[in-house]
Write a structure and sequence with these properties.
The protein is α+β, with helices and mostly antiparallel strands and 253 residues long. The chain has helices spanning 8-21, 28-35, 39-51, 68-76, 80-98, 140-146, 151-158, 173-186, 223-226, 231-248; strands spanning 55-57, 64-66, 101-108, 111-118, 133-135, 189-192, 199-207, 213-222. The protein contains ten helices and eight strands. It starts with 7 loop residues before the first helix and ends in a 5-residue tail after the last helix.
């Protein structure tokens, strides 16, 4: 009779633990050496984990890192206190530069969830308070996440019904595919009166370890006031902030 430590499930967990502890990933040979497992066993177990998106090959190499699904599970456990410790100073600096409300959003199933928000001093209107659900097809922070998901994820999302929030909301599959292509090419998503009337927002993807986009950083303001800020200036500042956030989330590890 197998003990718990010898069970197949335990071996799967041990492989995930070993890969998670390695900053640059592990090859199958290295996994086998660390866990004292035969090459065929490591190949079979790692293949199963990869098929479930719990492991992935890093940048097409032979090294294995945690997969997108595993990264999503790990980040879904972070609390508001965890985010505040990691990113508040970055958001505050961006608020000081742009003078508008800034927030961090996280992928949560088929929506983006606002998890942290910083407003300019004296502001009394919270557009994206923590906990607000932001649709992936309409919110700038949602589009910045959706555009960089896998083709299968995007296909599943586009197969779902979508809500039109204003007359500017893009809901057709053709319009959304074109919009997502623009986001990938431009590096920044825009929501101009598409979710909240009179509100202009920009969103930028934030990558975590493994290169997966599970977050976005967004800036939101009244359209009439915010429109005078050049888009290129917003893109530059969001891109810089997103790079700092990615480092905090281990993308540079």
């Amino acid at each position: 009779m197998q003990t718990r430590s010898e069970s197949p499930l335990s071996r799967y967990v041990q492989i995930l633990e070993a890969v998670a502890a390695a900053r640059t990933g592990l090859t199958l040979t290295e996994i086998g050496q660390q866990l004292d497992l035969r090459a065929p066993t490591v190949h079979r177990l790692a293949g199963s984990l990869k098929s479930l998106d719990l492991l992935a090959n890093q940048d097409g190499s032979k090294s294995y890192v945690l997969g997108r699904r595993m990264q999503l599970l790990l980040h879904s456990t972070l609390s508001l206190a965890d985010y505040s410790h990691l990113v508040t100073s970055i958001l505050r600096e961006l608020v000081g530069e742009l003078g508008e409300t800034v927030h961090l959003a996280r992928l949560n199933g088929t929506i983006a969830e606002s998890v942290l928000m910083v407003q300019p001093e004296g502001s009394n209107r919270a557009f994206v308070q923590p906990g607000r659900e932001l649709p992936l097809h309409a919110a700038a922070s949602g589009k910045a996440i959706l555009a960089f998901q896998s083709p299968d994820f995007i296909e599943r999302y586009l197969a779902r019904p979508r809500t039109r929030f204003t007359e500017n909301t893009k809901v057709s599959e053709k319009a959304l595919r074109a919009e997502l292509a623009r986001v990938r090419a431009d590096g920044i998503a825009v929501c101009d009166n598409e979710l909240d009337a009179g509100v202009l927002s920009y969103g930028h993807p934030v990558r975590v370890k493994g290169g997966y986009v599970l977050y976005s950083i967004g800036v939101t303001g009244l359209a009439d006031r915010f429109r005078v800020t050049p888009k290129d200036a917003v893109r530059e500042k969001l891109s810089h902030a997103a790079a700092l956030l990615s480092e905090d989330f281990g993308a540079g590890a």
